[in-house]
Amino acid sequence: MSKISEVVQRARAAFNLGKTRPLQFRIQQLEALRCMIKEHEKDIVGALTADLHKNEWNAYYEEMVYVLEEIEYMIKKLPEWAADEPVEKSLQTQQDECYIHSEPLGVVLVIGTWNYPFTVTIQPMVGAIAAGNAVVTKPSELSENMANLLATIVPQYLDRDLYPVITGGIPETTEVLKERFDHILYTGNTAVGKIIMMAAAKHLTPVTLELGGKNPCYVDKDCDLDIACRRIAWGKFMNSGQTCVGPDYILCDPSIQNQIVEKLKKSLKEFYGEDAKKSRDYGRIINSRHFQRVMGLMEGQKVAYGGTGDAATRYIAPTILIDVDPKSPVMQEEIFGPVMPIMCVRSLEEAIQFINQREKPLALYVFSLNDKVVKKVIAETSSGGVTANDVIVHISVHSLPYGGVGNSGMGSYHGKKSFETFSHRRSCLVRPLLNDESLKARYPPSMAKMTRH
Amino acid sequence: MDPYADTLRRLREAFSTGRTRPAEFRAAQLKGLRRFLQENQQLLQEALAQDLHKSTFEAEVSEIRISESEIDLALRNLRSWMKDEKVPKNLATQLDSAFIRKEPFGLVLIIAPWNYPVNLTLVPLVGALAAGNCVVLKPSEFSRSTEKVLAEVLPRYLDQSCFAVVLGGPQETGQLLEHKFDYIFFTGSPRVGRIVMAAAAKHLTPLTLELGGKNPCYVDDDCDPQTVANRVAFFRYFNSGQTCVAPDYVLCSPDTQERLLPALQSAITRFYGDDPQSCPSLGRIISDKHFQRLRGLLGCGRVAIGGQSDESERYIAPTVLVDVQETEPVMQEEIFGPILPIMNVRSLDEAIDFINRREKPLALYAFSNSNQVVKRVLAQTSSGGFCGNDGFMHMTLASLPFGGVGASGMGSYHGKFSFDTFSHHRACLLRHPGLEKIYSIRYPPYSPRNLRMLLVAMEGRSCSCTLL
């Protein structure tokens, strides 16, 4: 048996012992996780800096805070969520106990990714632990420093048998996918999402796939462009554009394209100075392959700002492209880099049509002071989630489910949705084993009972 | 030649026009469905009688009435289910609007089985239509007469630009599954469930799989054997055992077995008479293939009750087997027939171990006068659903989600759960376009001061820091 197989079997055996059932145990593990984060803040920041040139602020604000809040919320709500949920009874079941009983699924596999390597790996773990599962975690090898850190510190704080961390690349991931799990949560790209679902199909394992897409950002003529552009610039260029819910491209009327460019430039200079390369707040591309890929997307395009890069440091300047042809490569794949194409559309209808001709994205953004415009865009499109008049922030509301639709994914998590995703909600009906008198009517022979009108 | 491309394209185009979105349209479809049932009761009864020798009573209770009540529930609640679901906000989002929007997925494929061909086709259809989807229905080719009614009569009651019935066997279904759907709802065996999920994976199509398994029925020593026998027999032999949630096998002590056997015989005689073959209440096996399979199972262990069969009618007598080994075929596959094996265990612990060594079933039953025993079985096992002291009553309550876990399936439906299953739950946040000063803390350049403020806020946990 391979080492990975052993690790998974051990997790299953530990789960079968029933250790994770008591809420007290789960809360203890979550508190230990919280401790781990607090005691290793500096190490976490260090890993994020090494992997993605993130600074202290990014590490706290864009990663750790999410996880800490999730843990807080989970601990507080767990007793309520884990309790049996009585349901409405029918006439025939008045004397019975009818409720939904939440149970752990068993052994959950969480496969993380590299762009917010701490959050997307640990936040799902929080929900899986709270729901009472054993959790096998496989951080992304592309964010190597974080993977190594997690492999080191997690076993120091959490039960080692129940919550192992597996490191490695494609071979290890392929190996782990041969094992049987009771749920798999994967964050990453569409192509690999299909592979994961195929592997899961062999064992009839339900999956949550957090994938990606090209998140459209429609900017209406009727809006405060200063504010809109500042918010868009913030969301687009954070982590050097490597955010699955970041705005991927802008759709706007040709009459405001220039203003948008100017205001984006203004915000970018406020954020990162004249030369973003010198800014401590500006990220880097994860690796050379992605660096080459993103640089390639700019070829042949009309550059209104930026357009340069430095392979040695994997730096790509904040870039704005204008008059972009929808058929060009930059409009064919998720950019996942600091390049913002602006596409001109002549009407709201055209924008909506443009969006609907493409795969459903993970997020959709619309900027308008006109309530009707916002409502129309939402009503006539589909996406995982939406924020109107801002970007990204819908994913930070605990009570909103975070997930995709169509090519951008299936299933969701965060907050209570995490608890539900990682639980089996079992329907229960318990009646007394009393005399059958009241039930006799249902038994055959039934001829006497049947009169057709 | 792709026979489905045109139909699917047509349905997709209809969906993209927004036709199925208004509540009025959906309600009209549901009313059409209700009229279909009302105006074709006799036709459906006859079809079910032909396919499964289903009695008028069973057809009424487990097929027509259940479908009608789901339609009525959906009609009554449609507008409230369709409403945006407001969610609790925290301090930082007080001025914003946060809600979950329920949207149709688009083009839904429903693959239905043959054992309850009306119920298991129409109830999912209710959910898919209520949620605003366009639907392709693939009824089972095994329940031939019902398939005919569904293909020829049902479409007349629905808007055919948004609904189509597709016929065929495994090959045609395979071809159909090569196409992209936005949701797939499948009821059938785990083996085919795997094939459907693999096909869905190619297009990243989400799905609900209602599969099966061997539903254990634990009978405690502390019980009244006749009451237990009545209930177990009723639910086991209903539809001649061809029910995914029927008790598949009994686990009890040898002593209890002794008491159960005469009680089961008594129940069977009372229900089906001395010659069950001539009783109109008892169904028949769907096909020759399944009949042969079940006849083979009669050779396992020892026949304690029944055991007769008649190939010409695909009739199998209500049967109880004893002295069965775990390794015998009757304990290896889902029986799906009127055969009830009894396995002996020496204790509750042994019963629970036995259950947990196997795949998680769709349903699990425990009979005992002691509520403690019932609750213990519940707590120490897992299954799609559970009923203490009765058969599959839990699935008649629309307020309980109906679905499996592990090898018995994923996802659930019935009542509001159907509507939610066939909807995409879209997270929406409508941000206040002003208040820029409050948000400015999040913008670079980042200062140590901002970081200190954030850390203090994190410690105090006085507000949601992530929304600054």
Automatic annotation (TrEMBL), chain A:
PROSITE patterns: ALDEHYDE_DEHYDR_CYS, ALDEHYDE_DEHYDR_GLU. The keyword rRNA-binding does not apply. Its main location: cytoplasm. It catalyses: octanal + NAD(+) + H2O = octanoate + NADH + 2 H(+); an aldehyde + NAD(+) + H2O = a carboxylate + NADH + 2 H(+). One of its GO terms (molecular function) is 3-chloroallyl aldehyde dehydrogenase activity. It is found in: Cytoplasm. InterPro entries: Ald_DH/histidinol_DH (IPR016161), Ald_DH_C (IPR016163), Ald_DH_CS_CYS (IPR016160), Ald_DH_CS_GLU (IPR029510), Ald_DH_N (IPR016162), Aldehyde_DH_dom (IPR015590), Aldehyde_DH_NAD(P) (IPR012394). One of its GO terms (cellular component) is cytoplasm. Keywords: Cytoplasm, Lipid metabolism, NAD, NADP, Oxidoreductase. Belongs to the aldehyde dehydrogenase family. This is Aldehyde dehydrogenase.
UniProtKB/TrEMBL annotation, chain B:
Belongs to the aldehyde dehydrogenase family. GO terms for biological process: aldehyde metabolic process. The active site is at E210, C244. GO terms for cellular component: cytoplasm. GO terms for molecular function: 3-chloroallyl aldehyde dehydrogenase activity; aldehyde dehydrogenase (NAD+) activity. This is aldehyde dehydrogenase [NAD(P)(+)]. Residues 12-424 form the Aldehyde dehydrogenase domain. InterPro entries: Ald_DH/histidinol_DH (IPR016161), Ald_DH_C (IPR016163), Ald_DH_CS_CYS (IPR016160), Ald_DH_CS_GLU (IPR029510), Ald_DH_N (IPR016162), Aldehyde_DH_dom (IPR015590), Aldehyde_DH_NAD(P) (IPR012394). Its EC number is 1.2.1.5. Coiled coil: none annotated. The lineage of its organism: Eukaryota, Metazoa, Chordata, Craniata, Vertebrata. Gene3D superfamilies: Aldehyde Dehydrogenase, Chain A, domain 1, Aldehyde Dehydrogenase, Chain A, domain 2.
